[in-house]
Design a protein that fits this description.
Chain lengths: ~250, ~260, ~280, ~280, ~250
C-alpha cells in the first residue's frame, strides 16, 4: 500500500441520536505508525466517534476509510473491518461469564483461528505485562476497577490489530499504572502501532500523540502538533479548556 | 315417548320405605336423574333425555313411574362421568350413564341391580383384513382401540388378549377417527354403541361380531354411597325386568343381533 | 494489628444467636400454620371418605406398577421432544431477535408461528397432527401407525413456541454493550451470539425454561389422546374402573420424582453461578 | 463541512436496495416453502375428509355461538386467577430470594410449595381441590356449590408456583451492584426490592410471564372436570356428538383472539423499553 | 456530640474473599469536617474499604464507628447507618430503569420523606451545578461516561449525608470537569462535609484532604499531612508509588 494513503481517514462524519446531533462533520486522518489523541470536554463525542469508526454505530453521513477502503459502505463486510481494528471501551464491557483468560483468548481463537495453546500462552504473557498474573481464572466481577480496565486493554491487544482505538484507557488506573500503561502504549507506538486515543490524560496526548484533535460539540475545533496545541492554542474554546486542565494539575 | 300406560302396579314389591312421600330426595317432590353431557344415541336421542327417547332415557322414566313419579316430576341434570363416583354428597338421586357394576366401584358409590347386561361389539373397516374374522383368535394380531372408562378394555385384554397393546381413546369421536385413519384395525365398544357407530357414523364398516365380557358387563344406576334410595331403585328395576318391560325397552332401542364370536 | 480471637468469636456467636432466634420463630409459626391446616382436614367429617378415594394405600399399591410401566413411555417421549425443542426454539428465538430488514419475512413467519402455537391449546395441535395427518392419506405407514411420532411432533411444535419466547427474553436481557464488545474484538454476528450472548442468556432463563420443561413433561400425557397407554392414561383407566382417584396420585408421585431433583439441581447450579460472579452484599 | 444531499441519498438508496434484495429472497423462499406444503396437503387423497372433519364451515358456524357462550366463563375465571397469581407469585418469589438465615423455614416452605405445585399435574390439583375439599364436609356451602371457586383456587395454586419461578429468575438476573447502590443511597431492603430490583426484574420476565399467562388461559379449561361448560368442554361435546373436530377450532380461534393481541402489545412495549435504554448497535 | 469523637473510626478491619485477604487490619480516623484521601495501587483495597464502611460487605473482624457508635455490630440497623452516609461507586451503578432525575430523587423521596416537588427542585439545582441541565429526562445508558459519573455524584449528594465516601469520582471526567468537581468537593469541605476519598487524582489528595492514607496490599502503610507525604514519604513503597506518579505528570 502506498505510504501516502492514511491508515484511517474520517471524512465529514455526522451522527445524531434522535434530535441530538453528536457528531457534526468530523474530519480526521491517521497515518501509518501515527497516534492521534482526541481531547475535549465530557460529551463532546469522543466515544461516539470511536464507535462509529469501529462500525458499531451506523453513521448518518460521511465516510470512514481504512487503508483507503470505504468501510462505511453498506456493502463492506463489517466483521473484516472490526478484525483489523481493536477497540478498548470506556466502560470496559468485559464478558462477565468468562474468566479473565477466556475474555482475552476468545477473539484470537474464534475469529483469527489461533490454536488454544498459542492464544493462551500469548494471553498469559500480555496479562503478566499488565500486572495481572495469577488473576487468569477470576471472573471480571471479582476484579477491582483498575484490574478490569487492564484486562480490557489486553483483550484488545490480543488480536494484534492494525489500528487501536483507545477510549479512556487509564481512567480507572492508579497513577503508577497510568505510568505503566503510558509506557506500554509508547512501546506499541514505537513498534509502529497506529492509534486513536480518546483521553482526559494530557500526558498521553503530550507524550505519545503525533497529533492532538480538540473536539468541541461534535466538531474538530483545532488540531495540530501536541507541543503547539498545548503551548499556543488558536481557538478560544481550546484555550479555555487547557486553562482548566492546567488548573487541575493534569498537564 | 314409549311410556307404557298399562305397566303393572308394583306397590307390593316396593317396601314401605319406598313410598314416594318418604323418599329422601335431593329436591323433595322431584326425582333428579343424572346423565353425562353430552348423552349419545342410542342411550339418549338428540342429547335430550327429557324426551324419553333413547334406551337410558326410557329406562329412567320407567323407573320413575315405578317409584310413583310422573314424567313431569323428573328433572335431568348433567354430571361428568368422572364425578359420578367422586366422594361426598351427590347432586342427583340416581345416575344412568352406562356405568358398569364393579366391586371396586361399590366402595365409593351404590349401584342398583342391573338394568342391562351388554355384550361387546367389534367394529372394523369394510376393507380391513380383519373384516372376515369369525373367532376371537382371528383378532389377536389386530391393533384394537377402545374408549377410556369403559369395560371394553378389560374385556379385550381378558378375552382376546391381543398381541399389541390396546389403544385407549378419550371418546367415541376419537376412536372412530382412529379407525377411519387406519390407526387402529378394530374398535371394541359395548354392543349398543357398536350398532350405532356402524349404522350412523362409520360408513362401510363391518360389525364382525359380539362377545361376552368376562363375568358379564352389567350396567346399574349409580347412587350416593349408602343411599336410602338404593333398595327402592333396585326394586323398581327388578320389577321392570320381571314384568318384561325392560326387555321391550331394550328391544326397541338396542334391537339388532350380531354374530357371536367364539374363542377358537 | 491482629484482633484477639475472643472478639471474633463473640461477634460470630452474636450473629448466630440472632439468626437462631429468627429461625426458631419462623419454624414455629410455619409448624403451627401447617399443623393447624392438617388437623382441620384430618378431623373433618369427610376425611375418611376423602382418604379412601384419594389416598388409599391399597389402591396406590395395586395401581402403581401399571402406572410406572406407562411412565417409561412418558420419559422417553419427554427426553426426545425436549432435546428437539431446545434446539429448534433457539433457532426460532435467534430468527426473532434479528434486526436486519432483509430478514423481515422470515421474522414474520417466526412471529406467526410462536403466536399461533402458543395461543392454540396443545390438545388441539395433538388432535390436528395426530388425527389430521393420517387422515390426509399421504403420510407413511410407520408414522401413522405409531402415535408416539405424531404426538411427539405436535408437542415439539407447541413447546418450541413457548421455549423460543423464553430464550428471546434471555437474549434481550443481555445488555447491548456485550454485543458491541463481541463485535469489536472481531467476532461475527453469529459468533457473538454463540460465544457471548447465548451463554449469558441461557443462564438467566434456566428457571423459566425449567417451568416449560416441567409443563412439557406433564403435557406428554396428551399423546394419550392418540391411544398409547402412558402413565396418566393408565391412572385414569384405573381410577375410572375403581371409582377412586388414588392412581392419579401415583402418577403425580412419579412426575415429582423427576421434577423435584431437577429443580434442586438447577437451583444449586444457579446459586453457584451467582456466587462466582458479583460481590456478595451483606444484609 | 456539510455533505452534499445526493451523497446521503445515494447511501440511503444503496442501503434500501441491499435490504430489498434480501427481503425479496427471503419472501420468495418462504412463499415457496409454505405454498408447497399447502399444495401437498390440499392435493392429498384424504384432504376432503380432513376438511370435512377438521375445517367444516357449517359445523364451525353451528357450534361457534355455544362455544363463545362457554368462553366468557374462561375469560372471567382467567382474569381473576391471573390477578391473584401475579400478586401471590411475587410474594413467593421474594421469600425464595431472601438470604437471611432466620428465614430458612419460610424459604423451605416456599421451595417445597413451588416444587410440588409445579411437579404435580394441574388436573390432579383440580381433582383434589375440586372433589376433595367438598368431600371433607367442612367447606362452606357457597364454596362447594360453585365449581368455579374451587377450580379457580386449584389453578391459582399451580400457577403461583410457575410464575414465582419466573419472577425469581428475573430478580436473580438483576446485577447485585444494583442492590448495593440502592442500599447505599439509604433505601431499606424492602424499598430496594420495590423501587430498584423488582422493576428491572419484571421488565425482563415479561415474555416468559406471557407464556404462563397463555398456559393458564388454556388450563382454565380444566375446571370443566368439575362440571361447568366452558368453551373447550362445549367444543368437545359438540365435536363428540357430530363426530367432527371443527368445534375445537372454534375454541382455538377464541383463544387466539385473546393471546395474539396480547403478544403483540407485549412485544411492542418491550421494543420500546429496549430502544429507550442502551445504544442501538448497527449491523 | 463531643468534638473529640471522630465522625468515622475504622479499627482493625479485616476482610477476605475466600483465600484472598483484601483488608489486613485497617485503622482510620476521620474527624468532623475532615477529608481523608485514600491513595494506593490498583487492587490495594480502597473500594473494598469504602464498601465495608457503608456496610455493603460484611467484615471479618474489627469495628467501624460512626459518631462513636459501633455500626458493624450485627444488632445495629444498617439502613439507618447508610442513610447517614453517601457513597459514590467507582462503576457509578446508576439505576438503568430510571431517568437521571428519578435516579437522583429516589432516595430523598423514599428514605428521607422529602416531598416530590422539593426533591425535584433541589435535584435540578444540583444537576445544573454539575452541567447536566437538560439531561434530567434521559436514561443513564444514553449518557457519556463523564455524564454518568456526575449523575452518580449528584445522587449521593442529594441525600445530604453526614459523611461522603467517594470512590474515584473523577475517573471518567475530562480535565475541565475534574477541576469543576474538585472545586465542588472543596466547596463541600468548606461547608463542613466529612469525607473519605479514594482517588488516583493526586490533586484531590493535595488540595482537599487533611490527611492522606497510603494503602498497600490491604494495610495502611503510611499516613499524614498531604504536604508531608508528598514531599517526604517515609516508607520505601510510598516513595516508589509517588515517584511513578510524578513521572506520569499527575502530581
Ligand atoms: N444512545 C444514545 N442516545 C442518545 N444520546 C446519546 C447516546 N449515546 C451518547 N449520547 C450522547 O452523545 C453525546 C456524546 O457522547 P460520548 O459518549 O461520545 O461523549 P464523550 O466525548 O465520550 O464523553 P466522556 O468524556 O464523558 O466519555 C453525549 O451528550 C451523550 O449524552
Ligand atoms: N467479590 C470479590 N471476590 C474476590 N476478590 C475480590 C472481590 N472484590 C474485590 N476483590 C479483590 O480485592 C482486591 C481489592 O479490590 P478493590 O476493588 O478494593 O481495589 P481498589 O483499591 O479499589 O483498586 P482500584 O484502584 O483498581 O479500584 C482486588 O485484588 C480484587 O481483585
Ligand atoms: Mg466517552
Ligand atoms: Mg476501586
Amino acid at each position: 500500500m502506498s505510504a501516502t494513503v492514511p491508515v484511517l481517514e474520517v471524512r465529514g462524519v455526522t451522527k445524531s441520536y434522535g434530535d441530538r446531533a453528536v457528531l457534526r462533520g468530523i474530519d480526521l486522518e491517521v497515518g501509518e505508525h501515527c497516534a492521534v489523541a482526541l481531547i475535549g470536554a465530557s460529551g463532546s463525542g469522543k466515544s461516539t466517534l470511536l464507535r462509529c469508526i469501529d462500525l458499531l454505530e451506523e453513521i448518518d453521513d460521511g465516510d470512514v476509510f481504512l487503508d483507503g477502503e470505504v468501510i462505511t459502505d453498506p456493502s463492506c463486510p463489517a466483521v473484516g473491518v472490526r478484525r483489523r481494528l481493536g477497540l478498548v471501551f470506556q466502560a470496559f464491557n468485559l464478558f462477565p461469564h468468562l474468566t479473565v483468560l477466556q475474555n482475552v483468548v476468545l477473539a484470537p481463537m474464534r475469529s483469527h483461528g489461533v490454536p488454544r495453546a498459542e492464544a493462551e500462552a500469548s494471553a498469559r504473557e500480555l496479562l503478566g505485562r499488565f500486572g495481572l498474573e495469577g488473576r487468569e481464572g477470576d471472573y471480571p466481577d471479582r476484579l477491582s476497577g483498575g484490574q478490569q480496565q487492564r484486562v480490557a486493554i489486553v483483550r484488545a491487544l490480543a488480536t494484534r490489530p492494525r489500528a487501536l482505538l483507545l477510549d479512556e484507557v487509564t481512567s480507572a488506573l492508579d497513577p503508577e499504572l497510568v505510568g505503566e500503561v503510558l509506557s506500554l502504549v509508547r512501546g506499541l507506538k514505537e513498534q509502529g502501532m497506529t492509534m486513536v486515543i480518546a483521553t482526559h490524560e494530557m500526558a498521553f496526548a503530550r507524550e505519545v500523540a503525533d497529533e492532538v484533535c480538540f473536539l468541541h460539540e461534535g466538531r474538530v475545533l483545532e488540531r495540530g502538533d501536541p507541543a503547539r496545541i498545548f503551548s499556543a492554542p488558536e481557538q478560544p474554546e481550546t484555550r479555555q479548556f487547557l486553562r482548566r486542565v492546567v488548573e487541575t494539575g493534569r498537564l | 315417548g314409549d311410556d307404557d300406560e298399562t305397566a303393572s302396579p308394583t306397590t307390593e314389591t316396593t317396601a314401605l320405605a319406598c313410598e314416594k312421600a318418604d323418599l329422601a330426595l335431593v329436591t323433595p317432590g322431584t326425582l333428579t336423574v343424572a346423565t353425562d353431557s353430552p348423552a349419545f344415541p342410542p342411550y339418549v336421542i338428540d342429547d335430550d333425555p327429557t324426551s324419553g327417547k333413547g334406551f337410558e332415557s326410557a329406562v329412567a322414566y320407567a323407573i320413575a313411574e315405578e317409584l310413583g313419579f310422573t314424567a313431569e316430576e323428573v328433572t335431568w341434570i348433567r354430571v361428568p362421568f368422572n364425578s359420578t363416583f367422586a366422594p361426598g354428597p351427590k347432586k342427583f338421586d340416581f345416575d344412568l350413564n352406562q356405568v358398569s357394576i364393579k366391586a371396586e366401584r361399590q366402595k365409593g358409590a351404590d349401584f342398583s341391580s342391573p338394568y342391562y347386561t351388554t355384550p361387546q361389539g367389534v367394529l372394523v373397516a369394510g376393507d380391513s383384513e380383519f373384516a372376515g374374522a369369525t373367532t376371537l383368535t382371528d383378532l389377536k394380531d389386530a391393533q384394537i382401540g377402545v374408549q377410556v372408562g369403559t369395560t371394553s378394555l378389560d374385556a379385550v385384554n381378558e378375552v382376546i388378549a391381543p398381541g399389541k397393546q390396546v389403544r385407549v381413546f378419550n371418546d367415541s369421536n376419537d376412536v372412530v377417527r382412529a379407525l377411519k385413519n387406519g390407526q387402529v384395525d378394530a374398535i371394541v365398544t359395548d354392543l349398543p354403541t357398536t350398532l350405532y357407530l356402524r349404522d350412523a357414523v362409520v360408513e362401510g364398516s363391518t360389525l364382525v361380531g359380539q362377545f361376552e365380557a368376562p363375568g358379564g358387563d352389567d350396567w346399574g344406576a349409580v347412587l350416593e354411597k349408602d343411599s336410602e334410595l338404593t333398595p327402592c331403585v333396585t326394586a323398581a328395576v327388578d320389577s321392570l325386568r320381571d314384568s318384561g318391560e325392560l326387555a321391550s325397552i331394550t328391544e326397541q332401542w338396542i334391537g339388532a343381533e350380531a354374530p357371536v364370536l367364539a374363542l377358537e | 494489628m491482629d484482633i484477639a480471637p475472643d472478639r471474633r468469636a463473640a461477634r460470630e456467636a452474636a450473629r448466630r444467636r440472632h439468626a437462631r432466634r429468627g429461625s426458631v420463630v419462623a419454624a414455629v409459626s410455619s409448624v403451627v400454620v401447617l399443623g393447624g391446616l392438617a388437623m382441620l382436614i384430618v378431623s373433618s367429617p369427610g376425611w375418611e371418605d376423602v382418604q379412601r378415594t384419594f389416598f388409599s394405600w391399597e389402591v396406590f399399591r395395586d395401581s402403581f406398577p401399571d402406572v410406572l410401566a406407562g411412565f417409561w413411555l412418558d420419559v422417553k417421549l419427554f427426553l426426545v421432544v425436549e432435546a428437539v425443542v431446545l434446539v429448534l426454539a433457539l433457532g426460532v428465538a435467534l430468527v426473532r431477535s434479528t434486526r436486519a430488514p432483509a430478514l423481515f419475512p422470515v421474522r414474520l413467519m417466526a412471529t406467526v408461528f410462536t403466536d399461533v402455537m402458543r395461543g392454540v391449546p396443545v390438545i388441539l395441535v395433538v388432535y390436528l397432527i395426530g388425527f389430521g395427518v393420517p387422515a390426509l392419506g399421504i403420510a407413511p405407514d410407520w408414522l401413522v401407525q405409531d402415535p408416539i411420532y405424531l404426538g411427539g411432533i405436535a408437542l415439539a411444535l407447541c413447546y418450541t413456541a413457548y421455549v423460543a419466547e423464553v430464550y428471546r427474553a434471555g437474549l434481550d436481557s443481555v445488555h447491548p454493550s456485550q454485543r458491541a464488545a463481541a463485535l469489536a474484538v472481531g467476532l461475527s454476528e453469529t459468533q457473538a451470539m454463540r460465544h457471548v450472548i447465548v451463554p449469558q442468556a441461557v443462564r438467566r432463563v434456566v428457571p423459566p425454561l425449567l417451568n416449560d420443561f416441567i409443563s412439557l413433561q406433564k403435557d406428554v400425557a396428551l399423546v394419550a389422546i392418540l391411544g398409547p397407554q402412558e402413565a396418566f392414561r393408565v391412572a385414569q383407566i384405573s381410577a375410572a374402573s375403581d371409582f377412586n382417584f388414588t392412581p392419579f396420585l401415583a402418577a403425580a408421585m412419579l412426575y415429582l420424582m423427576v421434577t423435584v431433583p431437577l429443580a434442586r439441581i438447577v437451583d444449586r447450579q444457579q446459586a453457584k453461578a451467582r456466587r462466582r460472579q458479583g460481590h456478595v452484599v451483606a444484609t
